[in-house]
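Checklist before submission:
- one chain only
- standard amino acids only
- sequence pasted in full

Submission:
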Amino acid sequence: YDSETKAFSISPYTTRGTKCTLYFEEVELIKDTLLSYYPTVLTRTDFSTTVTNTTIGTIYKSADSSQYDNDGEVYYFAGAPTDNYVYFAGYYWRIVRINGDGSIRVIYDGRSAHTNGESSEDRQIGTSAFNSSFDNNAYVGFKYTLNSQRPSNQNSGIDSTIKKYLEEWYGTNLNEYDSQISINSGFCNDRDTSSTWTSTGRNIYYGAYIRRNGTPTFKCNNINDLYQTKIGLITADEVMYAGGESYTSNYGYYLYTGDYYWTISPYGHTNLSACLVYQVRNGGELSAGGSDNIHFSYGVRPVINLKADVTISSGNGTASNPFVIAT
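Returned file contents:
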């Protein structure tokens, strides 16, 4: 039985008339296990301000279907939760959200547990450019082609510099845990665009920029922007759900690290500042700066999705006693 495709297969088939008996063992999915730790479930509809409140036993969920991801209802963390720590594959992670398909999205947080508001380079795996070239708007793509805005399928196009960097780290550090990591939820490199005209010419802005004033989404509108890879980056929208805000510092929420690090979300391509991709900056604010930033070297915090059927062997989600994923 494949828990992702929900399909049965029996092999090898024998002679006609062979009878098979299937025995099922009920297994609690990680979504149900986690939700039992958070008796307080809140919703948010105002994303125009930062969130810094410290919580325990609290999780947020989609207020309505407009806040669902491509698979359904989402539960997520905001502010400064003290009980969303996970220990997996020898590293500490923070839970970003429970995806609509029941898998768990986590962001890398270091070789040791770090408190909210703690500035530490250990909370990233290193630094990388998003892409080494910057004179074409195609370079904001996680994968890209130079003759079109986005590749037409997951297997075409050129890997960005940061995609190569992430996958090399995955191969060294997570490859043996491959069976526990899902590709279904994917990572949205949203390249839907809006254009404006200025005295110097045309400016192109991408979806995350258009939503910057308080209308984030977990959905990926174009399936060709949803990269079903095993490792990726957080989106600018997820930063907003977590309590981050454009150009407003937030030193208290769980995504603050004291360093600049990449999101996967393009910002824009302008005549004065070409090829911009959002980062979470050293004050915790969401920004893209004011220069050709994609070839600059910023921090890298991997994001992975743990399969819906992984199990927690111990822990309560705190820094001193994180949820330990059975391997």
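Reviewer check: The mean pLDDT is 90.
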